Amino acid sequence: MDRSTGWKVVSAIEFLVAAAVIILDLVQPTLVILAMIVLSLLARRDRLSTLGLKRVEDLPRILAVVFGLVIVWQLFHLGVTKPVLNHLTGATQDLSDFENLKGNVGQLALLLVLSWTLAGFGEELVYRGYLQARLTDFLGLGRNGVILAVAASSVLFGLAHREQGLIGVVVTTMDAVFFSALKWRYGNNLWAAVLAHALSNTIGLVAFFFLGPIFGFW
User: Which DSSP category does 56 fall into?
Assistant: First the structure.
């Protein structure tokens, strides 16, 4: 087995171990896999840029575009995705983890900090960065390899939010595809996905703070 083939096998094993951590919900999966990322990069002598954390050119323009797309995406969820799923399943997304958020400034502040750190940065580094990188190491960076990497990492992202019920899993899986599309649209640059994720969470949290849970427009 030559060196390149050996690293492909290692990448596949890393992905499978990370997937198991997520599916089995071991400890706090994001933190566990962040530790795996450190070990993986040290073993490879790689930098974070290999996971998509590249220099951003023209940040104000990208921020404006991403923010606009996030608004449209959120409106699509409220106008189409959630209402359709609500009617099909007879249930709504389980947002009980946020039941004390409405009108609670302290909780809003804490969740916003977590949205831009553990969620926006940490989860993107794990799902759109590390997991996709390890799968494309194994499958290649061709169209099929990228599509499979996006699909697999998105399903795992959805499963990581199964405390929100079936609708939550579907919605967050779709969000993962959306974040991935932005990442690859900007040349496999993870910062686009980080911004989209953090902004999406921020909009949802602020709306919940003022209005409470919104399960759709109809």
Answer: P
The helix (run of H) or strand (run of E) holding residue 172 is helix 165-185
Please say whether the beta carbons of 17 and 35 come within 8 A.
Answer: no
Per-residue pLDDT reduced to its tens digit, 63-102: 999 999 999 999 999 999 999 999 999 999 999 999 999 9
Tell me the C-alpha to C-alpha distance, in Å, between residue 60 and each of 63, 65, 72, 179: 5, 9, 19, 18
Q: What pTM does this model have?
A: 0.95
Among 151, 147, 170, 148, residue whose Cα is nearest residue 159: 170
Residues 6-34: b if buried by 16+ CB within 10 A, e if exposed? eebebbeebbeebbebbeeeeeebbebbb
Q: Is 56 exposed, middle or buried (0-12, 13-18, 19+ CB in 10 A)?
A: middle
Q: Is 83 helix (H, G, I), strand (E, B) or coil?
A: helix
Gap between the Cα atoms of 199 and 180, Å rounded: 15
